[in-house]
Automatic annotation (TrEMBL), chain A:
Localisation per UniProt entry: Nucleus
GO molecular function: transcription coregulator activity
Top-level taxon of the source organism: Eukaryota
Protein name, UniProt field: Mediator of RNA polymerase II transcription subunit 18
Main location: nucleus
Organism: Noccaea caerulescens (Alpine penny-cress)
InterPro entries: Mediator_Med18 (IPR019095)
Automatic annotation (TrEMBL), chain B:
Composition skew (Polar residues), residue ranges: 247-298, 513-529
Positions with biased composition (Low complexity): 300-323, 477-512
GO cellular component: mediator complex
Disordered, as annotated region: 246-323, 452-471, 477-529
Domain of life where this protein originates: Eukaryota
Entries under InterPro entries matching the protein: MED8_plant
Protein name per its UniProtKB record: Mediator of RNA polymerase II transcription subunit 8
Length: 226, 529
């Protein structure tokens, strides 16, 4: 199994939810803010948990397969614990350790043979923007789908119809995570009219005025000459 | 009211700063800025006076004259309204309001305008401005303005054309207006709680997999075809379960014999040695010396008999020295084959049954005074153990000896050993088993580990205990003895070796081994007698 490791060992993460009817407006807003073309997102995510023979503390790895490409690419991701303490409470994003690497397609077999077991799987369908602003920031907006049968991605059904999840992640290192967190926070302010973003385990709810903001972004009015 | 008036009075004071910037006198006269300023100051004084009155009422604790206060308020209100109208005219000249802001979305305008540009965005902005003015910076300012106006007109025309096209398309395809509802959205507590619950559910699904896990029974079975990205990663075996590809066990070029045997490594069970009588009350393991065993225990399956007959007829047509070589190879192949078939059967689960039935079996063993195999057959079986051991070893997985089975075996291992030992001592054939006493100290668990090729730290056992272990726990041993007996030339050779000394001399025993296995067996199986 070939592996190409990444050096970043931390990431800053915020999450939020948005109603599907406002996703188009969010895409327009993101297109303007990021200044890069959007990428289609269709990811089959397999979450594997270790068996007891691999240690007392169970470990969890996620195998992500980008199935939107003609030749699907596989990524293995291990998400560690979040930063805690007074410093962590003061910043509005979650900072956690993370190791991510591109792998060859037989990675799944490798993990199975090591004794890992499939815990759950998801299919995420949506779009993403990747751009650089102080740090490499990725914004993904996706519908989360679960499988009624094992590996049956064609029969996937939304976990929550009518709602999509917005993830903003930025790669960081132990040296620069505070700057990256600040960059993510300030970027999130631009999305405030449509989506409230918060740490992954702190619910933020939907924006009550999102409909009006979406209407404003989508409206037909042309600019007048000055 | 105090806060409200304070806020609104700040608004009319907006226009005076332009006066300080020495605006064009013509513009000042046209917009009547001086008049607006005077009215704003007088309004400010009126409001201040009212506030002072209230302050005095508060200090002296006297009740206010509400009639006067209401009269003053209506006057201030009217004046404020007039000033706001005037300021609107002024602001049209100096303030650009977003066209899309209306009563519906005005409330969120502060949110939309609240964010300051990031430093990167500011630098980006500046670079774009420089880029825009790059071609015209050398020209005089009026020319610059004209050029920029011309460019803006072109862009505006292009935008108008695009809007027309969009509007026509919308009409043609019947798309409605994209404006949202006219009512300003409000959210009651019930709705907020529901959304909170939904958000928790969605976040939990993404972060923890909550609500997306399949029940364990469905996790194994794959009823649909695998998606393309998994099809070349995972394969499916007969049982319909996800499986990883098994490493192939080709020992040599005689692998086709293995394919023809009618059994597979996994999935289906091999031809059962217990005959046609399937009695669920019996232990799945039948020994040749067990009272329950039928006369068919040692008989090979019809497929094997047919195969052996074909091979014998082919042998007759070859020269004598080739016949001998082929006979040796075929016997070795069959020994491997039969040991593999033994693997195909569910041996591990059947060993657990010994826990319940061990006493009965070992009592039956006590009463018998003769082992059911002759010395030549025992010798053949020992040789079979040597041949097949190495090949079985890597086709069993470590996980199959589970802790539950170990527990079962430990419970009766002591009794089993002593029963076997005493019965063997009482039988006339006990001289065949010189190393029998070494079994006393060994539990069955290490023996199982060695038999199934699971690595352990236990020393290698003597031949006889190994042979007895096979006889007791490996039904394939029965098949091996019968198959080798059917090979006539080979049997004669074996009997000659038996006369020469059997177990005593290992060198003669190794004549029948394949040359490439010779060193290995010398190292592993030398007998120090």
């Amino acid at each position: 199994m070939s592996i190409s490791p990444k050096t970043n060992s931390m990431e800053c993460v915020v999450q939020g939810i948005i109603e599907t009817q406002h996703v188009e407006a969010l895409e327009i807003l993101l297109q303007g803010l990021c200044g890069v073309p959007r990428e289609r997102l269709r990811v089959h995510e397999l979450c594997l948990k270790s068996a007891p023979n691999l240690g007392v503390v169970s470990s969890e790895v996620r195998l992500l397969c980008d199935i939107d490409q003609p030749d699907p690419t596989w990524t293995v991701k291990h998400v560690g614990g979040a930063m805690r303490g007074a410093g962590a409470d003061q910043i509005s994003v979650m900072v956690r350790t993370m190791i991510e690497s591109k792998v060859s397609k037989n990675a799944l077999r490798l993990f199975y043979s090591l004794g890992y077991k499939l815990d759950h799987e998801l299919l995420k369908v949506g779009f993403a923007f990747h751009f650089k602003r102080t740090a490499h920031i990725s914004v993904s907006v996706s519908s989360v789908n679960k499988m009624p049968k094992i590996h049956a991605i064609d029969e996937a059904v939304p976990v929550l119809p009518g709602m999509q999840i917005v993830d903003v992640t930025a790669a960081a290192t132990p040296e620069n995570y505070s700057e990256v967190a600040a960059a993510v926070s300030s970027f999130c302010e631009f999305l405030a009219p449509l989506v409230h973003l918060s740490k992954p385990f702190d619910p933020a709810g939907v924006v009550p005025t999102a409909a009006a903001a979406a209407a404003s972004l989508m409206s037909d009015g042309g600019g007048t000459t000055l | 009211m105090e806060g409200g008036v304070g806020l609104t009075t700040a608004q009319p004071q907006g226009p005076p700063p332009p006066v300080a910037e020495k605006l064009n006198q013509q513009v000042v006269n046209q917009l009547n800025l001086e008049g607006v300023k005077t009215r704003a100051i007088s309004l400010f004084k009126a409001v201040t006076r009212i506030l002072e009155d209230f302050d005095a009422y508060g200090r002296t604790n006297t009740s206010p004259k509400w009639q006067d206060i209401l009269g003053q308020y209506s006057m201030v209100n009217l004046e404020l309204f007039n000033i706001v109208e005037e300021v609107k005219k002024v602001s049209n000249a100096f303030v650009v309001l977003p066209k899309n802001v209306n009563a519906e979305n005005a409330a969120i305008l502060p949110v939309m305008l609240s964010s300051k540009l990031l430093p990167e965005m500011e630098t980006d902005d500046n670079s774009k401005r420089e880029q825009l003015l790059q071609g015209v910076q050398s020209l005089p300012i009026p020319m610059q303005i004209e050029r920029l106006k011309a460019r803006m007109d072109m862009i505006a025309a292009a935008c108008e054309n695009a809007e027309k096209v969009l509007a026509d398309t919308r009409k043609a395809y019947g798309f409605g207006a994209r404006q949202g509802p006219s009512m300003f959205p409000t959210m009651d507590k019930g709705q907020a709680a529901k959304i909170r619950e939904q958000e928790d559910m969605l976040r939990a699904a993404v972060n923890d997999g909550t609500g997306t896990r399949l029940p364990p029974d469905q996790r194994q079975l794959l009823t649909t075809a695998l998606p393309p990205h998994l099809a070349d990663v995972l394969i499916i075996n007969d049982a319909g379960k996800n499986a990883l590809p098994m490493p192939s066990n080709n020992i040599n070029s005689q692998g086709n014999l293995l394919q023809n045997s009618g059994t597979q490594f996994m999935g289906r069970s091999a031809a059962s040695p217990s005959g046609g009588n399937f009695d669920n009350t019996r232990s799945p393991l039948q020994y040749s010396n067990s009272p329950q065993s039928t006369s068919m225990v040692n008989a090979p399956s019809p497929q094997q008999q047919q195969l052996q007959q074909q091979q014998r007829s082919k042998l007759m047509q070859l020269p004598q020295h080739q016949q001998q070589l082929l006979a040796q190879q075929q016997q070795q192949q069959q020994l491997r084959q039969s040991s593999m078939q033994g693997l195909g059967q569910n041996q591990l689960s059947s060993i657990q049954d010994l826990h319940g039935q061990g006493q009965q079996k070992f009592q039956a063993l006590h009463g018998q005074h003769q082992m059911s195999y002759s010395q030549p057959m025992a010798h053949q079986q020992f040789q079979a153990r040597q041949l097949s051991g190495g090949h079985i070893q890597h086709s069993m997985s470590q996980g199959q000896l589970n802790p539950a089975m170990n527990r079962h075996l430990n419970q009766f291992s002591g009794g089993a050993n002593s029963a076997l030992f005493t019965s063997a001592q009482g039988s006339p054939s006990s001289q065949m088993i010189p190393n029998m006493s070494s079994m006393q100290s060994q539990t069955l668990v290490p023996r199982m580990q060695q038999q199934f090729g699971v690595s352990g730290t236990n020393p290698q056992r003597g031949h006889s205990s190994q042979m007895l272990g096979d006889q007791m726990f490996n039904s394939s041993g029965m098949m091996q003895t019968q198959q080798t007996q059917l090979q006539q030339p080979q049997q004669q050779q074996q009997q000659q070796q038996q006369q020469q000394g059997g177990y005593g001399n290992m060198q003669t025993n190794q004549q029948t081994l394949q040359p490439n296995m010779l060193q290995n067996t010398q190292q592993r199986h030398q007998n120090p007698q």
